[in-house]
Amino acid sequence: MPDLIEAIMSNLRAVVDEYMAAFTYILPRAVGMVFVLVLGWLLGRLLGKAVAAVVKLSKADDALKGTPVGSYLAKAGYSLSSLMDLLTRIAVYLFSIAVAIRILKVPEAFALAQSLFDVVGRIVIGTAVFTVGLLIVEKVFDIAAKILAGESGQVPLALSLVHALLVSLVIAAAFSASGVDLSPLAHFASAFAQGVGIGLGVAVVVIAVAAFREELLEFAKNLRGLGTR
Questions:
Q1: pTM of the predicted protein model
Q2: pLDDT at 7
Q3: What burial letters (b/e) apply to 1-31, b meaning 16+ CB within 10 Å?
């Protein structure tokens, strides 16, 4: 009987020691995770506001006002500064989550943390490409619109199409810099361009035939006359 009690107590002590070891291993790391997450939340808000202030000081919001992109952002309830604030917060939050995961030192979580680091880097690069490219396109479009606008102040349709194309290229470049695979979109765009090209070619032929119908009929009569001689 004493041997049985001693065996039970020994097993209980082993279980308690195991749980205490796990607790002492997890507790400081859990505290560190909470600290990093709270710090990331605070830094995200501060850095987001700082980036938004820099964008406002650079007058990027004013540069986008009155442009199609600026109008779309306004309809969505955003300005360029508020959009940059949001993206900065998301990047910092993801970075803090990745750091918190690494603090756990769980091998299975390292891959997730590394992927989050990669996502943050891609978001930063894509955001930088989008912001700089969009500002350049909008500034050039604003100057070109002032030069080419007619007396009525309306922007030529061709210039609007070029502007839409350039904005689309900037968005595509930003997605590409963010690591998004655009090959399916490229295949679709290529097929669409081929279809548009064929359609335009047929339309040009039809319009040319309709415009020069009488001349073509006269030319055909002359050819018939030459053939009967």
A1: 0.54
A2: 62
A3: eeeeeeeeeeeeeeeeeeeeeeeeeeeeeee
Q: Alpha-carbon distance 129 to 27, whole Å?
A: 42
What gap in Å lies between CA 168 and CA 186, rounded to an integer? 12
Torsion angle in degrees (nearest 10) through CA of 75, 192, 173, 44? 40
Angle between helices 157-177 and 68-75 (to 10 degrees): 60
Cα–Cα nearest to 14, from 4, 22, 25:
22
Which residue is listed with tokens 């035939």?
209
The dihedral of CA 86, 90, 91, 95: what is its sign?
Answer: positive
Q: What is the pLDDT of residues 183-225, one digit of tens each?
A: 665 565 566 666 666 766 666 676 666 666 677 667 666 666 6
Q: How many CB atoms lie within 10 A of CB 160?
A: 14
Per-residue tokens: 143: 């100057």
Distance CA 62, CA 76 (A): 17
For residue 6, what are its two tokens?
A: 């001693």
Tokens, residue 29: 């790391």
Alpha helices, H only, the chain:
2-57, 60-64, 68-75, 80-104, 107-148, 157-177, 183-211, 213-228
